[in-house]
C-alpha cells in the first residue's frame, strides 16, 4: 500500500450517495434525507446531458444572428466535440459492457440503454448538422463569395490546377493498400479520412478492394483561388487511375473510423510513469473502433466489407452525405473575412496592473502588495498579468523560488521559457507537470523533459491522482522596511496556456495573503515531498475536502434560511454531476433556499421538480468564448463567501484529481464575482434554461453575457 504524501489526499471510502456526512449543527435529519431519496429518478444521465450540450453548440451554428464564419466555426467545433465524446465516453461504455462491469448509472439506466440512446441522439444531431451545412451554411457562404465545390463544378483551369497539385504534392505521399489473400485488411487509424476503392482487372474481370488514406498533412479543403475550395478527397478520387494504372476504378467512397483513444496507465506497476505513458500513447493508435462514418452513396457490398473487417456493429454505422469530417471547416472559418466574424476584441491589462505614465511594465509584485488582483480572462490580458508575473519572477534577483503546476500549456509557451530562465538563473524551480492531461500527453512529455534539462525539479504529482489544480507561487526576499520572505500566489480556474487564455473564460487571483500563501506552500509540499499536512485555512483541496467543504456550506445555508438570515447558493461550473453535491442542493431547495446554477456542459440535476427542486434554476451560457471558470457563492447569513478554483462537480474531479478552491479574501474580489453572477442570472441575459425533463430551451434575452463584459471592458479602457 502507498504511503507518504498521497495518503492524506487519496479519496476516502464512501457510500455511492453519502451526501450528508457533515458535522452538526449542519447535518440534516433522516426524514430530510428520505424526502430527497424518495425521488428515484432525480438524476439526469450524464452522457445524454453531454449530447444536449453539443446540441446547444449546434444551435449556435444554426443561429442566423451570428456572423457567418462564426457559425461555420461552431459546425467544426460540434464535429470535434462529438469525436472526443465517442473516443472517450462511448468507448468507456463499450469497455465496461465487454468486461461485464455494466452497473446501473445514477440515472437508473444500464450502460446498454445509455448506448442505445446515444446512438439515436447522436445520429439525429449529425444528420441535423449535415442538413444545416447543406441547406443553409453552404448557400450562405456561396452568397458571400466563399464556395466549397465538388469536382464536377470545377472549370477546366481549376481541374488542371488540381491535377498538377495531385501530381506534384499529393501523389508522392499516397500509399494505396490492396486487400487480397496476400494483403490483409489494413489498419485504419482513428479519425483519418479514407477512400474505399473498388477496382477491376480488365484482363481477368476480377474485382479488388483497396484503401487510400487522405493525407492529413494537407489542407482539408484545397484552395482554388478567389475563395473557392474543393475537398481533397474529390481531387484524389478523380485521379485514382494514377494510383492504380491499368485497372478500372469502379467505385470510391469516403469513410472515417473513430477509435477508443482513452488512456490506461497502471501507475502502481510502472517504475517510470513517463516511459509507461509513452508506451500507452503508442498503443492508443490501435484502440478498437467505436464508430464508422460513411458516405450515404456507399454500396452495400463495400459497406459490408468495412463492417466485417473493422468489426463494428450495425448501430455503430453512421451514413451521411459528403463531405465527411467537417472539422476541416476550421480552415474556412479562418479566412481573412473580418466582416463575417465577431468584431475584433483585444484583451486589456487589468487596471491595477496597467502602466501609469511610464513605458515600463507595472511591477506585478508591487501591485500585489498593495491589493489583491482578481483577473477575468480573456477580458483581462493573460500576457500582461499571469505571464508577466512569472517573467518578472524569473528576472527578479530577489526571487528565491518558483513553484508551479502545469496541466496544459501551448507549444511555444512563454510560461515554460520563464521557468527555464529562472532555473538557469539559479532560482529553485519546482514544476508539477500533469503528463496525463488527455490528448496533450505528448506535448507535456516534451516540456517535462525540457524543464528537467534546464535544471527544474520536475514532479509528476501523486500516484492515482491527476494534478489538475492551477497554482503558481513565487517566494521573494523583500528589501527595505518590513523586509523578509513573502509569498506571492496565483490561483486560477484555467490552465497556464497563453493561447487558450484568449478564448477561454477564466478567473485568477494574485495575492500576498499570508494564510493563502501558507496553504499553497503546504500543498506543494504534499505534491512533491513527504508532508502529511491535509488541513488548510483558506483552501478546499480534492480529493480530501472539496466535496465535504461545499456540502457543509450548503447545509449552513439551510440553517441560515431556517433562522431567517440571508441565504442563497450560486454555482458556476463546466459540469455538475456528483450525486452527493446534487442531493445536498436538493435538500437546500426543499428547505426553501434559492439555488442558481450556471453550467456550460453536463448537468445531472433536475430543476423545477415539485417538492424536490422548485427553488433551483439552471442556466447555460455559450458564445465566442468557452465558459470555463468555477465559482461557488454562499450568502452566509449576510457574510458572503465566494470560492474560485479548478474543480468541477464530477467524480473524477472530487475523487481522482488534486483540485483547489480558494476563498476570495477581499470584498473587492467578491464584488466582481457577485456582479458576474448577478448579470448571468438576470432574466434579460441570453441563456439556455434547463427543464425538469433534461431538455434545454433558449431564452433569447436582449443582453449576451460575454458581449456585455466586452463592452464593459471597452468602457473601462476609454474612461480609465
Automatic annotation (TrEMBL):
<dbReference type="GO" id="GO:0009358">
    <property type="term" value="C:polyphosphate kinase complex"/>
</dbReference>
<keyword id="KW-0597">Phosphoprotein</keyword>
<dbReference type="InterPro" id="IPR025198">
    <property type="entry name" value="PPK_N_dom"/>
</dbReference>
<feature type="binding site">
    <location>
        <position position="504"/>
    </location>
    <ligand>
        <name>ATP</name>
    </ligand>
</feature>
<comment type="function">
    <text>Catalyzes the reversible transfer of the terminal phosphate of ATP to form a long-chain polyphosphate (polyP).</text>
</comment>
<dbReference type="Pfam" id="PF13090">
    <property type="entry name" value="PP_kinase_C"/>
</dbReference>
<keyword id="KW-0067">ATP-binding</keyword>
<keyword id="KW-0460">Magnesium</keyword>
<dbReference type="InterPro" id="IPR003414">
    <property type="entry name" value="PP_kinase"/>
</dbReference>
<feature type="domain" description="Polyphosphate kinase middle">
    <location>
        <begin position="158"/>
        <end position="330"/>
    </location>
</feature>
<feature type="active site" description="Phosphohistidine intermediate">
    <location>
        <position position="468"/>
    </location>
</feature>
<feature type="domain" description="Polyphosphate kinase C-terminal">
    <location>
        <begin position="539"/>
        <end position="699"/>
    </location>
</feature>
<feature type="binding site">
    <location>
        <position position="628"/>
    </location>
    <ligand>
        <name>ATP</name>
    </ligand>
</feature>
<comment type="similarity">
    <text>Belongs to the polyphosphate kinase 1 (PPK1) family.</text>
</comment>
<dbReference type="GO" id="GO:0046872">
    <property type="term" value="F:metal ion binding"/>
</dbReference>
<protein>
    <recommendedName>
        <fullName>Polyphosphate kinase</fullName>
        <ecNumber>2.7.4.1</ecNumber>
    </recommendedName>
</protein>
<dbReference type="InterPro" id="IPR036830">
    <property type="entry name" value="PP_kinase_middle_dom_sf"/>
</dbReference>
<dbReference type="GO" id="GO:0005524">
    <property type="term" value="F:ATP binding"/>
</dbReference>
<dbReference type="InterPro" id="IPR024953">
    <property type="entry name" value="PP_kinase_middle"/>
</dbReference>
<feature type="domain" description="Polyphosphate kinase C-terminal">
    <location>
        <begin position="363"/>
        <end position="531"/>
    </location>
</feature>
<dbReference type="InterPro" id="IPR041108">
    <property type="entry name" value="PP_kinase_C_1"/>
</dbReference>
<feature type="domain" description="Polyphosphate kinase N-terminal">
    <location>
        <begin position="43"/>
        <end position="149"/>
    </location>
</feature>
<feature type="region of interest" description="Disordered">
    <location>
        <begin position="1"/>
        <end position="23"/>
    </location>
</feature>
<dbReference type="InterPro" id="IPR025200">
    <property type="entry name" value="PPK_C_dom2"/>
</dbReference>
<keyword id="KW-0418">Kinase</keyword>
<dbReference type="Pfam" id="PF17941">
    <property type="entry name" value="PP_kinase_C_1"/>
</dbReference>
<feature type="binding site">
    <location>
        <position position="600"/>
    </location>
    <ligand>
        <name>ATP</name>
    </ligand>
</feature>
<dbReference type="GO" id="GO:0006799">
    <property type="term" value="P:polyphosphate biosynthetic process"/>
</dbReference>
<dbReference type="Pfam" id="PF02503">
    <property type="entry name" value="PP_kinase"/>
</dbReference>
<dbReference type="Pfam" id="PF13089">
    <property type="entry name" value="PP_kinase_N"/>
</dbReference>
<dbReference type="InterPro" id="IPR036832">
    <property type="entry name" value="PPK_N_dom_sf"/>
</dbReference>
<feature type="binding site">
    <location>
        <position position="438"/>
    </location>
    <ligand>
        <name>Mg(2+)</name>
    </ligand>
</feature>
<feature type="compositionally biased region" description="Basic and acidic residues">
    <location>
        <begin position="9"/>
        <end position="20"/>
    </location>
</feature>
<keyword id="KW-0479">Metal-binding</keyword>
<dbReference type="GO" id="GO:0008976">
    <property type="term" value="F:polyphosphate kinase activity"/>
</dbReference>
<feature type="binding site">
    <location>
        <position position="408"/>
    </location>
    <ligand>
        <name>Mg(2+)</name>
    </ligand>
</feature>
<keyword id="KW-0547">Nucleotide-binding</keyword>
<feature type="binding site">
    <location>
        <position position="81"/>
    </location>
    <ligand>
        <name>ATP</name>
    </ligand>
</feature>
<keyword id="KW-0808">Transferase</keyword>
Amino acid at each position: 500500500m502507498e504511503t507518504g504524501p498521497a495518503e492524506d489526499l487519496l479519496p476516502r471510502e464512501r457510500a455511492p450517495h453519502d451526501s450528508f456526512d457533515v458535522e452538526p449543527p449542519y447535518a440534516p435529519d433522516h426524514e430530510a434525507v428520505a424526502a430527497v431519496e424518495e425521488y428515484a429518478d432525480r438524476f439526469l444521465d450524464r452522457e445524454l446531458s453531454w449530447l444536449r450540450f453539443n446540441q446547444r453548440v449546434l444551435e449556435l451554428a444554426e443561429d442566423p444572428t451570428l456572423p457567418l464564419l462564426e457559425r461555420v466555426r461552431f459546425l467544426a467545433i460540434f464535429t470535434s466535440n462529438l469525436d472526443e465524446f465517442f473516443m472517450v465516453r462511448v468507448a468507456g461504455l463499450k469497455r465496461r459492457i465487454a468486461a461485464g462491469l455494466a452497473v446501473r448509472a445514477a440515472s437508473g439506466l444500464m450502460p446498454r440503454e445509455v448506448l442505445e440512446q446515444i446512438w439515436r441522439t447522436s445520429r439525429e444531431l449529425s444528420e441535423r448538422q449535415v442538413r444545416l451545412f447543406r441547406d443553409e451554411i453552404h448557400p450562405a457562404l456561396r452568397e458571400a463569395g466563399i464556395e466549397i465545390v465538388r469536382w464536377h463544378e470545377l472549370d477546366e483551369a481549376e481541374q488542371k490546377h488540381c491535377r498538377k497539385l495531385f501530381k506534384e504534392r499529393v501523389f508522392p505521399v499516397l500509399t494505396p493498400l490492396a486487400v487480397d489473400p496476400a494483403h490483409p485488411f489494413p489498419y485504419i487509424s482513428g479519425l483519418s479520412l479514407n477512400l474505399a476503392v473498388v477496382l477491376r482487372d480488365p484482363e481477368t474481370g476480377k474485382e479488388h478492394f483497396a484503401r487510400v488514406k487522405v493525407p492529413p498533412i494537407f489542407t482539408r479543403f484545397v484552395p482554388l483561388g478567389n475563395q473557392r475550395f474543393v475537398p481533397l478527397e474529390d481531387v484524389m478520387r478523380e485521379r485514382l487511375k494514377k494510383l492504380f494504372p491499368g485497372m478500372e476504378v469502379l467505385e470510391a467512397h469516403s469513410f472515417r473510423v473513430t477509435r477508443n483513444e482513452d488512456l490506461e496507465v497502471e501507475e502502481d506497476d510502472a517504475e517510470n510513469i513517463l516511459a509507461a505513458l509513452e508506451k500507452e500513447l503508442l498503443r492508443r493508435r490501435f484502440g478498437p473502433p467505436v464508430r464508422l462514418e460513411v458516405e450515404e452513396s456507399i454500396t452495400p457490398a463495400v459497406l459490408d466489407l468495412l463492417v466485417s473487417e473493422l468489426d463494428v456493429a450495425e448501430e455503430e454505422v453512421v451514413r451521411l452525405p459528403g463531405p465527411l469530417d467537417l472539422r476541416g471547416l476550421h480552415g474556412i472559418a479562418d479566412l481573412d473575412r473580418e466582416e463575417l466574424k465577431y468584431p475584433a476584441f483585444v484583451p486589456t491589462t487589468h487596471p491595477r496592473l496597467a502602466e501609469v505614465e511610464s513605458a515600463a511594465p507595472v511591477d506585478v509584485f508591487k501591485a500585489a502588495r498593495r491589493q489583491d488582483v482578481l483577473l477575468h480572462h480573456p477580458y483581462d490580458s493573460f500576457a500582461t498579468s499571469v505571464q508577466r508575473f512569472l517573467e518578472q519572477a524569473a528576472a527578479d534577483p530577489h526571487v528565491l523560488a518558483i513553484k508551479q503546476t502545469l496541466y496544459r500549456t501551448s507549444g511555444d509557451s512563454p510560461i515554460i521559457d520563464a521557468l527555464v530562465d529562472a532555473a538557469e538563473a539559479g532560482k529553485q524551480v519546482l514544476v508539477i507537470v500533469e503528463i496525463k492531461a488527455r490528448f496533450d500527453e505528448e506535448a507535456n512529455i516534451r516540456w517535462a523533459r525540457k524543464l528537467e534539462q534546464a535544471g527544474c525539479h520536475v514532479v509528476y504529482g501523486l500516484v492515482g491522482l491527476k494534478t489538475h489544480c492551477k497554482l503558481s507561487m513565487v517566494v521573494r526576499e523583500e528589501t527595505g522596511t518590513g523586509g523578509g520572505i513573502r509569498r506571492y500566489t496565483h490561483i486560477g480556474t484555467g490552465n497556464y496556456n497563453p493561447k487558450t487564455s484568449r478564448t477561454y473564460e477564466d478567473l485568477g487571483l494574485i495575492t500576498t495573503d499570508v494564510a493563502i500563501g501558507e496553504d499553497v506552500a503546504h500543498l506543494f509540499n504534499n505534491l512533491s515531498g513527504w508532508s502529511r499536512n491535509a488541513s488548510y485555512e483558506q483552501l478546499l483541496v480534492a480529493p480530501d475536502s472539496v466535496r465535504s467543504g461545499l456540502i457543509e456550506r450548503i447545509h449552513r445555508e439551510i440553517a441560515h434560511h431556517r433562522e431567517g438570515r440571508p441565504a442563497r447558493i450560486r454555482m458556476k461550473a463546466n459540469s455538475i454531476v456528483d450525486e452527493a453535491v446534487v442531493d445536498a442542493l436538493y435538500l437546500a431547495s426543499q428547505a426553501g433556499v434559492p439555488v442558481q446554477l450556471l453550467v456550460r456542459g453536463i448537468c445531472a440535476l433536475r430543476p423545477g421538480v415539485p417538492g424536490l427542486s422548485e427553488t433551483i434554476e439552471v442556466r447555460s451560457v455559450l458564445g465566442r468564448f468557452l465558459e470555463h471558470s468555477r465559482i461557488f457563492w454562499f450568502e452566509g447569513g449576510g457574510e458572503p463567501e465566494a470560492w474560485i478554483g479548478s474543480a468541477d462537480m464530477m467524480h473524477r474531479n472530487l475523487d481522482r484529481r488534486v483540485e483547489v478552491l480558494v476563498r476570495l479574501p477581499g470584498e473587492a474580489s467578491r464584488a466582481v464575482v457577485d456582479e458576474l453572477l448577478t448579470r448571468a442570472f438576470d432574466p434579460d441575459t441570453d441563456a439556455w434554461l434547463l427543464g425538469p425533463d433534461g431538455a434545454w430551451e433558449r431564452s433569447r434575452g436582449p443582453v449576451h453575457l460575454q458581449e456585455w463584459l466586452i463592452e464593459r471592458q471597452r468602457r473601462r479602457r476609454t474612461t480609465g
